[in-house]
Design goal:
This protein is α+β, with helices and mostly antiparallel strands. Helix content is 13%, strand content 30%.
Length: 116
């Protein structure tokens, strides 16, 4: 595959309202792209340049956190998760923990609740 068809990660792009694109790198790259993916969350700075959609609360809140060195610092939780993941589901709520490499665990807490 030629270099100009390569996916670039962590590549800063400035998008102006006129949809003209320019890059923010050490070397100049012509502002021509077939596809730009702006994955910067609910309050995206990219979205308004490409869509009139606005975020709204869906009734579900999700909180994500990480635990490091889980086998030493949280051995009870490490045993509960084992080598994979564990999940506990209740009415309108859930708690999920997933083991990653090097003793790292991702934890997700979810709940359904009204906005106010």
């Amino acid at each position: 595959m030629s270099p100009h068809r390569t996916v670039k990660q962590s590549f800063c792009v400035q998008i102006q309202r006129s949809l003209s694109l320019s890059t923010n790198t050490r070397r100049w790259v012509p502002p021509t792209f077939d596809l730009v993916i702006g994955a910067d969350g609910a309050w995206s700075r990219v979205r308004p340049a490409v869509s009139s959609a606005t975020p709204h609360y869906t009734g579900v809140t999700l909180v994500e956190t990480s635990l490091d060195d889980v086998d030493t610092r949280h051995p009870e939780l490490a045993r509960l998760i084992g080598d994979g993941s564990m999940a506990v589901y209740g009415v309108n709520r859930a708690l999920v923990a997933q083991r990653n490499s090097s003793g790292h665990v991702k934890v997700y807490a979810q709940s359904r609740a009204p906005l106010d």
